[in-house]
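queue> pop job 88
queue> type: inverse folding (structure -> sequence)
queue> payload:
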């Protein structure tokens, strides 16, 4: 069974990845994994790490199309688990990319496409 996971990135990094055929964020060389979230975690992550940033997209990822290790963990000592991808993300695993603009006050709302 496949599960959708999500990753927030800049439209610049996403556009560059599409020409390379794989996505690897700038922090990948240092961290060796890609931070992902489940849908219910997106706003928490956005407000904590991306508050006030513009030019973002949410990558909707089909986990069954990932060949690298996908591990649920919390590396900051919390109790909530987040999916971490230990490898590069193949472009064909991205089901869609959704624009993720911030509000005038820097906060975020879940895009309509991701609401129940």
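queue> result:
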């Amino acid at each position: 069974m496949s599960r959708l996971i999500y990753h927030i990135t800049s439209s610049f990094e996403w556009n560059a990845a599409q020409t390379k055929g794989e996505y690897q964020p700038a922090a990948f060389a240092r961290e060796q994994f890609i931070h992902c979230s489940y849908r219910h975690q997106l706003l928490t992550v956005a407000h904590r790490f991306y508050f006030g940033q513009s030019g973002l997209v949410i990558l909707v990822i089909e986990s069954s199309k990932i060949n690298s290790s996908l591990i649920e963990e919390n590396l900051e000592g919390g109790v909530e688990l987040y999916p971490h991808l230990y490898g590069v993300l193949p472009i064909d695993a991205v089901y869609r990319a959704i624009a993720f603009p911030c509000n005038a006050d820097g906060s975020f709302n879940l895009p309509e496409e991701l609401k129940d």
